[in-house]
Amino acid sequence: MTNNSIENLDPIDRYFSEVLDVHTWSDHPEIKDLTNLIYDELGCAELQSTSNNQGNISVKNMLRVLLLDLYVRWLTDPNLATGFHKHPRNYKPNSRYNALYINRKIIAVERLLEEHGYLGVLNHYNERSGAGPSFSTRIRPSQKLVEHFNKLTVDLHDIDKHHNQECIILRQKYFDDEDQRNTTVDLEYHDTDFTNTIRSQLQAYNKLLKTSFIDIPSFSKPSFFRTIKKGKRAGQKTTISIGPDNKFVRRVFSGGLEADWKLNGRFYGGWWQQIDKEYRSHIYINDEPTYEYDLKALHPTLLSNRAGIELPVDPI
User: Fold this and answer.
1) Separation of alpha carbons 2 and 212, rounded Å
2) Does 77 share its domain with 101?
3) CA dist., res. 120 & res. 198, Å (int)
4) What CA–CA distance (Å, rounded) separates 292 from 194?
5) Is residue 39 packed enough to be buried (19+ CB in 10 Å), middle (13-18) or exposed (0-12)?
6) What digits encode the pLDDT tens for the residues 7-61?
7) CA proximity to 109, closest of 95, 96, 91, 124
8) 199 and 61 together in one domain
9) At 38, phi and psi to the nearest 5?
10) Are residues 157 and 181 in the same domain?
């Protein structure tokens, strides 16, 4: 059970946020009860279609996903906001990247939460000139919602942060005429023997990670601040969770379909990839210490071995 309030929180920071995770799920009785309570108060039943073609997720379950996303961030860092898109194009129920089939009605659910005082909100901002960044709406729990959260005993181990989430990602860069900027999109694709094989391998790995206790015992909290050192966000702070909500690993391929799965394919995700080397040396797995081998010039060494060439000295 938490015992926090929003009284001493910083104002919502557009940069200190994470996009809504549409794969957050839990069947914990407390979460179901909270969802039912707020669902009735908001009158969400009016949003539910009466036709036989209602899609694969109910309005009530979309509310549960939204509440869970807010709750996970509240547990991780109460200052951390959720980036919430209010354009229907961001919710494609038939996409392989939307395993819970979240549809555009989640926008109406979020609006009802706003109207009933359950959310703190920083409205979206669009820079049409292209000279600066654009931002989606940022939301955080209001005190009214926090009072409900404080009654919960649910912790991160009771929440599946990546329920059926796709772990093989195909991306392509393009110029967005509407926003007048370069952007990256995750592409839909048809599975092949190759994608099925690497997905099975990575699913097995993620299953192992899910059942393994990975921790840094010397940390007093299951998260910590890190200052971003490179890129457009250099100097800004970010929160790294080292809990069970941040262990999902995915492979990201670039170049779109034209690249034929031959470009990149690197592994991303686990919190141990997001922390500095000095912290990685303190990682424990299932209460056992670990050691990170420093393999210098790994790729030149692999290439020389493949070519049958022995390097005279270790490359630096």
Assistant:
1) 25
2) yes
3) 41
4) 30
5) buried
6) 889 999 998 999 999 999 999 999 999 999 999 999 999 998 765 555 578 999 9
7) 91
8) no
9) -70, -35
10) no
Residue 155 and residue 6 in one domain: yes
State residue 229's pLDDT score: 79
Do 219 and 280 touch, CB atoms closer than 8 A?
no
Query: Which pLDDT score is estimated for 315?
Result: 65
Q: Select from 130, 145, 163 the last residue of a domain.
A: 163
Residue 2 has pLDDT above 80, yes or no: no
Structural domain boundaries enclosing 150: 1-163
Residues 179-226: tens digit of each pLDDT: 556 678 899 999 999 999 999 999 999 999 999 999 999 998 888 888
Enter the pTM of the model: 0.85
Q: Residue for token digits 């919960």? A: 152
Whether residues 76 and 214 share a domain: the answer is no
Asked whether the beta carbons of 162 and 209 are under 8 A apart, the reply is no
Beta bridge partners of 121: 139
Residues 192 and 302 in one domain: yes
Buried b (16+ CB within 10 A) or exposed e, 137-167: bbbbbbeebbebbeebebebeebbbbbebbb
How many structural domains are present in the chain? Answer: 2
Task: Check whether residue 71 and residue 208 sit in a common domain.
Answer: no
Q: Are residues 96 and 203 in the same domain?
A: no
